[in-house]
Amino acid sequence: MGMLDKFKDQFHSTTPSYDFKPSSSSHDIQLGPNAVFRYRQQRGINLGSWFALERWICPNVFRNAKQPGQSDFDVAGGKDPKRTLEEHWDTWITEDDFKWIKGKGFNSVRIPIAYFHLCGPLPEVLKGTDYEPFHHIYEGAWGRIKRAVELAGSFGLGVLIDLHGVAGAQNPDAHAGLSIGKVGLWDKHSNLASTSLSLRFLASELSNVPHIVGLELLNEPANNPKLQSWYKSTIDEIRSIVSSDFPIYISDAWDTNHYAQFVGSRNDFVVLDHHLYRCFTNDDKSKSGSTHANEIKSSFQNTFKGQSENAKGNIVIGEWSSSLDNSSLQGNDQQKDAQRREFTHAQLDLFESHSAGYWYWTYKKGEGWDAGWSAKDASRAEILPNWVGGKQFKGPPPDNVKEHELQRGHNSHKSYWASNGGSPDPEVYAPGFSQGWDDSLLFLSHQSGTSQIGFVDQWIGKRRIEYESHTGRKLGKAAWEWEHGFKQGIESSLKICTQ
């Protein structure tokens, strides 16, 4: 049975997981090909406004919305909403779009959804919320979300499901589901109960799907004294039904330093999501595109590198773009595109070096040309590279190449430490190197296409536990040498086996 067949068997079950019993993934999975989807460097794209709507992306969907006509709530309260929404869900993203995404080298998609999209199999998610009257409108959404996940998987694409809107709204923006400009998540027990129910349902339904790369708890929540404790308790709830190896993504709530420390202090697979935009503030608008690019390469790179280290490498850029304010762009259209291109490439270089993944916002817009926000337009303008998938796998080298590289690295390691006070156990470098080399090839040769280990520290931590279990040997103070060898094995394989 192939991966997609297994996925269909699990995901198309007619019995929803209402009781949230621990899934078969509640025990940590063995590292292998199925784990590649979750641990590889995510080079992704957002499928914005497919389910969680934004008027500036697809204004046509709002043609019959009630005033102020900015959110899903306004569409649901307008004229003929069920037909309007189902037509949009069925046509906004098609198989041809997934072909384009795969063809450009992206290996994952981030799909923003909201709690009310779950009401078909989980009607109680609407109880006591603003969307309680709209069950009949959204009851068909979950089936379409499942088909979207299935279609992405058929192209070898991973899927990050992002809970973009929750009951009461976690931020004042219309993309959270309401147009009232208020954060109401914390105001009512029913809002919090709905959010908990939504996340437990999603984790239970998705955790056994190999190409689901994670679940994002909240999109861009307004920072709040209650947020961190809510993160802790909610992660605990989810861990009671899914494995510690299932990736849970949390937003940094625009406080990256603080939440990098929070993520770095955890032992389970939790990932920090930072959104990088440079076009909204007065300070952003006062700088040219080239200045922004240079800052990304210098001061911000140093800051972000430190944040990544504090998060033990578990940090991604869940949203970014090529967009700059008009005041940041000088010259004719060609010159403006050149500045966007410089800005875009500076960001990509940063993400490749210091993050475990990134998702461009957004795939496309419904009306007009926009090479700042639409990946399709940015690609046509050659602002985005034609290929964003990193280096291509050349194929496995002859067996003696690995042995040669291992011996060369091992000799260098022993020689250095012999001249610098010695080390706890230089002999553990070799098995670490060998495992790192083999695992890197596992990613590079994956059936979904060339991949690269992205969550390196998370992966190494599990491999180290396996090594100690299989050998009956606790590495203790020598653990860093095994890990150093592992990382050099990865680096060596990438140098030799990719082009």
What report would you give on this structure?
This protein has 19 helices and eight strands. The longest helix is centred in the last third of the chain and has 22 residues, at 333-354. Strand 7, helix 14 and strand 8 form a beta-alpha-beta unit. It has helices at 3-11, 33-39, 72-76, 81-91, 95-103, 135-138, 141-154, 189-206, 227-239, 256-264, 282-285, 289-297, 299-310, 333-354, 375-380, 399-418, 429-444, 456-471, 479-497, and strands at residues 42-46, 108-114, 158-165, 212-216, 248-251, 270-276, 315-320, 357-360. The model is unreliable at 1-8 and 10-17 (pLDDT under 50). The radius of gyration is 23 Å and the shape is globular. The two termini are 33 Å apart. It is α/β, with parallel strands linked by helices. It has an eight-stranded parallel barrel, surrounded by five helices. Helix 12 (289-297) packs across helix 13. Helix content is 45%, strand content 9%. It has two domains: 3-380, TIM Barrel, CATH 3.20.20.80; 399-497. Pfam families: Cellulase. It comes from Kwoniella shivajii. Residues 85-364 form the Glycoside hydrolase family domain. InterPro entries: GH, Glyco_hydro_5, Glycosyl_hydrolase_5. This is Glycoside hydrolase family 5 domain-containing protein.
